[in-house]
Amino acid sequence: MADIKRLESGPRMSQAVVHNGTVYLAGQVSNQPTGDVNGQTAAILKQIDALLEKCGTDKSKLLNVNVYLSDIATFDQMNAAYEAWAAKDSLPARTTVGVQLARPEYLVEIAVVAAV
After folding, report:
1. Into how many domains does the chain fold?
2. Does an H or E element contain 42, and which?
3. For residue 46, what are the domain limits?
4. Would you say 68 and 99 are in contact if contact means Cβ atoms under 8 Å apart?
5. Does residue 1 surpass a pLDDT of 70?
6. Is residue 55 a part of any domain in this protein?
7. Which helix (H) or strand (E) holds 24?
8. Looking at residue 89, which CATH number applies to its domain?
9. Fewest Cβ atoms closer than 10 Å to its Cβ: which of 3, 83, 85, 98?
């Protein structure tokens, strides 16, 4: 049986789970959800970088990204921050959808899967 490593576990979930050479991050929202979608996206991507580093990997090894927007009309704002951050030579598969997020102050949530 393969080992499972869980990081930053709380009462409901772990922020990251590593299994069989793959890391799964929980959906990330901004730790300080103020400002616009561009700002929240940039903050979330920094959080993702930090979690990936703790798991022994980085954004160049992303396999899949799911982006959830509270208002799909903010797609271009999110993309501005995402495109500035993304590893251009190793872009993952990505999905973006408009959804109702857990709290009204959350404008964007991002979940990723990466190879270790």
Report:
1. 1
2. helix 37-54
3. 15-115
4. yes
5. no
6. yes
7. strand 22-25
8. 3.30.1330.40
9. 3
What is the structure's pLDDT at 32?
Answer: 86
Indicate whether this model's pTM tops 0.90.
yes
Q: Residue 103: what residue type?
A: R
Cβ(77)–Cβ(43) below 8 Å = no
- Secondary structure, 3-state, 51-73: HHHHCCCCHHHEEEEEEEECCHH
pLDDT band for position 63 (50/70/90)? very high
**pLDDT bucket at 42, cuts 50 / 70 / 90:** very high
Tokens encoding 39: 């700002």
Is the pLDDT at 25 greater than 80? The verdict is yes
DSSP state of 103: S
CB burial of 59-71 (b: ≥16 within 10 Å; e: otherwise) equals bebbeebebbbbe
Inside any domain, residue 3 = no
